[in-house]
Design goal:
Udp-n-acetylmuramoylalanyl-d-glutamate--2,6- Diaminopimelate Ligase, Chain: A, domain 1, 35% helix, six-stranded mixed beta sheet, UDP-N-acetylmuramoyl-L-alanine:D-glutamate ligase, Protein-Tyrosine Phosphatase, Chain A, globular, six-stranded parallel beta sheet, 18% strand, 385 residues
């Protein structure tokens, strides 16, 4: 049990789901669009909740005060693509030198981040926080709560560009972690907005080489793709500052896997599927296509690409860029699914998933390698059900 420095309560974590309350936890009562957590306070107390956090402001306040009581170094990770992969790699690498608590699932927003902090054990050496954003000012708010010691920016792409205007706007938002990091920040030397980010960095800026040969060898058979090599090199650059070694991190990659629908392989009808449907943006789409094109298979390669969301006025332009890249790679069968994707040049189009599900079995054969990639809301993963 840990002491709440504000309320004087002993607690063993926090949750906003009354069904997940265990004796000693704090229950966070939040009012949402579909439900009001205050209605479930009686159930939370009956389950043994040690106390109630009332609303978003109190959640931020208590999480911030609890963070100040921790000995852990706090790491903030953001970027247009690869945040979760990089967070998992940082977690793995830092685990070679200390005890790590890190963001779970998609707990990277104004609700998930403070709850992640409240679930951090007192004896943790590192607290690794993934920070997501789709509107200006969100990273600053997360940093207000987390008070990060160091930061990592994976890249600056076009995800959520609808709300930022252009890539410079996205870079300014992502770069806030570098402004707020008290000790150092990590970026790639290939980041197109490197000089802008350099100017934003408060402490030392570590500019990492994203193409290190030793890391490429360590990732063989573990995590494919040039984009993942870059993620791993950035993760190591951060972990190395805390004593991690190449040998230790290479050994730690044995058995490494990503959570959720991220490059998850399975078989159906004798076809190998790569389920990468957790989310998508133009940069992650292109990276996934490059990896598909270089992955051996016995049959043909198939890319099933669904719509990407929150791209604003440039949505059709960016969808056509992705599909154009797929066609240039020479992927034998490229299938578009959704309103935007059906307007792009490819081999087959389906305006909705329901129609695709009826006909898809005829499009593939045993031995084929199929990539499923789209924004999560397209539900492409249902093809595997």
């Amino acid at each position: 049990m840990t002491e709440n420095p504000i309320e004087g309560l002993a607690f063993s974590g926090a949750t906003f789901d009354s069904r997940s309350v265990k004796p000693g936890m704090l229950f966070v009562a939040l009012k949402g669009d579909k439900a009001d957590g205050h209605d479930y306070i009686p159930q939370a107390l009956a389950a043994g909740a040690a106390g109630i956090i009332d609303g978003y402001d109190e959640l931020d306040r208590i999480a911030c005060e609890y963070r100040r009581s921790l000995k852990a170094k706090v790491v903030g990770i953001t970027g247009s693509a690869g945040k979760t992969t990089t967070k998992e790699l940082v977690k793995t690498f830092l685990s070679t030198v200390g005890k790590v608590h890190a963001t779970e699932g998609n707990y990277n927003n104004h609700i998930g981040l403070p709850i992640t902090i409240l679930n951090c054990p007192k004896d943790a050496d590192f607290l690794v926080l993934e920070m997501g954003t789709n509107h200006p000012g969100e990273i600053a708010h997360l940093c207000d709560v987390a008070e990060i010691d160091c930061a990592l920016v994976t890249n600056v792409g076009t995800a959520h560009i609808e709300f930022f205007g252009d890539q410079d706007g996205i870079a300014r938002e992502k770069g806030v972690v570098l402004e707020r990091a008290r000790e150092f920040g990590v970026v790639s030397k290939e980041n197109a907005r490197l000089e802008m980010l350099r100017g934003m960095c408060r402490g030392e800026l570590v500019v990492a080489d994203p193409r290190q040969e030793w890391m490429a060898k360590a990732l063989e058979g573990v995590l494919p793709g040039e984009h993942n090599l870059s993620n791993a090199c950035l993760a190591f650059a951060l972990a190395e500052r805390f004593g991690a070694t190449k040998e230790g991190c290479s050994a730690a990659l044995a058995g490494f896997s990503l959570p959720g629908a991220r490059w998850r392989k399975s078989e159906k009808w004798g076809v190998t599927f790569i389920d990468d449907t957790y989310n998508a943006n133009p940069d992650s789409m292109i990276a996934a296509l490059d990896t598909l094109a270089s992955t051996p298979c016995d049959g043909k390669r198939v890319a099933v690409l669904g719509d990407m969301f929150e791209l604003g006025e440039r949505s059709l332009e960016l969808h056509r860029k992705v599909f154009g890249h797929a066609m240039k790679l020479g992927i034998p069968l490229v299938i578009g699914v959704g309103e935007m994707s059906s307007q792009c040049l490819c081999h087959l189009v389906y305006k909705d998933l329901k129609t695709l599900k009826k006909k898809f079995r005829l499009d593939v054969s045993a031995g084929d390698l199929v990539l499923l990639k789209a924004s999560h809301g397209m539900h492409l993963g249902e093809l595997l059900v």
